[in-house]
Amino acid sequence: MPRAVPEPDQAADPTPLPEKVVAVVVAFDRRDLLLAGLDALAAQTHRPDAVVVVDNASRDGSPAAVRDWIAAHDLPVDLVELPRNSGGAGGFAAGLARAVHRHGADAVWLMDDDTVPRPSALAESLTALRRTGSALVASRVVWTDGRDHPMNTPRERPGVDAAEARAAYAAGCVPVRSASFVALLLDARAVREEGLPQAAFFLWNDDFEYTTRLLRHRRGVACAASVVEHRTKVFGGADADPGERFVLEVRNKLWTFTRAKTLDPRDTVLYGGATARRWVRTLARSRRRDVLLRGLADGVRQGVRRPAPTATVLAGLGEVSDDVRAVEAAAGRAPLAPADGGTELPPFSVLLPVWARDDVAQLRRAVDSVTVEQELGPDEVLLVRDGPVPAALQRALDELAARPGVQVLELPVNVGLARALEEGLARTAFDVVARMDADDISLPGRFAAQLPLIAAGADLVGSGLLEIGAHEDDVVGRRTPPVGAAQIARYARFHDPFNHPTVVYRRSAVAAAGGYRDLDLMEDYWLFARMIAAGARVENLPDPLVKYRVGASPDAGSYARRGGLRLFRSELTLQRHLRAEGFTTPAQAVRNVLVRGGYRFVPTRVRTAAYRTLIGRGESR
User: Fold this and answer.
1) 489 CB neighbour count, 10 Å cutoff
2) Tens-digit pLDDT profile for residues 2-56
3) N or C: which end of the chain has fewer CB within 10 A?
4) Which residues are paired to 408 by β-bridges?
């Protein structure tokens, strides 16, 4: 707790208890802790009227364990199984919407799946809510040994007025400006007025943004008598080394400070300064400063654009999307229904990088294929000019930029494909992004086939492709990728399971995996492997939806570029990273270096034939 408080007095309670209290637990791959938390909810001296468990596509059998728990207990539990991992931010947004809209809650008690409340925790929080007239009450969060947990310390409200302070202290509480979702009781009226947490945050700072939004003009308190255990693996604060996820910390803080408008100028200075100090401490203590510095740069780039609306991020989830849209619409933050009244598909961008050696006619053909020729057209096309280009290509870019929905992002110098894609992702207007190359052709039904899978919960959807040679009707090969999450995961240990120019993905899922990183001609494989390891829901359509140019000669074009010493070095770097990240076993790493590395020195014609044989049947190794 921020400070010691006086003992509460016995003054009369100014407001009645909420009539209906619903607990919301967001779960991901912590089955045993989740069950311990449910046991603790059932043992509360003031039990919640219902519990909403939002399962974020767990892979450890959590949903089945919850169903067994429900059958053995009398506490009403509503199990919501999300088809994709929406992160803590998406899970809490979905759970809050469910509790408020579908269950009609008067108060909602939020907590993580590794939170175990003491028996009187809810009763004490309800008493504090009633006696202080607050919009939220934060519990005292301790670790397993009883020490206050430094990860979840509420921020005391600066400059609190005397009346608010007296009301809080009289109830044994402290006024706060922000709090954690680890155990937080909310007045549902505030939720209906302000809407839901920002699902685009995915992880980190979603609770900071949301609670500062709720408390901009409302009271909030931390209650010392309401105690919960946060059973994290280790005891540590928010300045522990976040590794690859530092990009989310930076991006989300920038969104909070520059986009959310939840903090007044004084708060912005106070919390901005505290954030800067914490980042400095984190960098100073880290043994992987290169990772954090890359995350800092990527987070700044992503933080300059607006986060996608929560209703957009959580689209395509059936009743969950309906609940989210209803709560956000009531708060003035989202339309009540899709404008056309038809099947709900998320809006999406096409991301297409262009560089100096691209052909003008092929670029125009590529853009036409993803716009006027598509059965389902994109809401935005973003062309990323990677450095200076010849005059004719620049004129074509200028002409394309004049088309409705087409924008050009001009990078002053050539930064390479990985960095150009990261720059583009930071500027796309929507969370769902389709990839396209400047010399390829998307078939008319591509997006109409892929977007329903995204709407149904997939984070990454690829497809087969046709290889074309001298012209677009010169089909010289066909690539059929592995299909089904299990086969894709197996295949990924030996080969890139996705054809990069065919993919549609969620920008938030890409960011959660650390984004694109420089690795010559293998930045996509490295990204997709990390997405799979991070729990992204993946799928491939076996049918070809893109025509991919490989060149007129079997000794030139894309296959020629995939051989030689430079690519062998990239292969070694890739395999070293996959092994270090635990994606491959030692035996798989050795096999990959020998087979995939040796493949780089095979004559181009032989390499082409072998590759087409392997990828053409989507073989898993």
Assistant:
1) 17
2) 444 444 444 445 566 668 999 999 999 899 999 999 999 999 999 999 999 999 9
3) C
4) 383
Which CA distances in Å does 339 have to 334, 342, 347, 348, 455?
Answer: 11, 8, 12, 15, 16
Min mean pLDDT across 157-171, 315-329, 547-561, 569-583 is at 547-561
CA–CA distance, 80 with 76 (Å, rounded to integer): 13
Give the CA diameter of the chain.
88
Alpha helices in 304-416 (DSSP H): 310-313, 319-330, 360-370, 391-401
CA distances from residue 612 to 136, 177, 183, 606 in whole angstroms, order as listed: 60, 60, 54, 10
Q: How far apart are CA 61 and CA 44, in angstroms?
A: 26
Amino acid identity, residue 76?
A: P
Which of 76, 111, 62, 109 is CA-nearest to residue 91? 111
Report whether 362 contacts 549 (CB < 8 A).
yes
Token output for 161: 């007025």
Query: Crossing angle, helix 162-170 and helix 121-132, to 10 degrees?
Result: 150
List the structure tokens of 321.
Answer: 């999307």
* DSSP at 259: I
Look-up of token digits 């974020």? 56
Task: Report which of 54, 62, 59 is spatially closest to residue 324, judged by C-alpha positions.
Answer: 54
Task: In whole angstroms, give the CA distance from residue 437 to residue 193.
Answer: 44
Query: Which stretches of 179-309 are assigned E, i.e. beta strand?
Result: 183-187, 220-230
Strands 348-354 and 220-230: unpaired
- Best CA proximity match to 76, nearest among 49, 99, 54, 103: 49
Element at 251 (helix H, strand E): helix 246-255
H, E, C per residue of 266-304? HHHHHHHHHHHHHHHHHHHHCCCHHHHHHHHHHHHHHHC
What phi-psi label fits residue 506: left (phi over 0), alpha (psi between -120 and 50 degrees) or beta?
beta
The answer to whether 86 touches 308, Cβ cutoff 8 Å, is: no
Per-residue pLDDT tens digits for 305-341: 778 788 877 877 788 888 898 888 888 775 544 433 4
Residue 299 pLDDT class (50, 70, 90 cuts): confident
Q: How far apart are the first and last CA of the chain?
A: 54
DSSP characters over 186-248:
EEHHHHHHH----GGG-SSSHHHHHHHHHTSSS-EEEEEEEEEEE--SS---TTS--GGGHHH
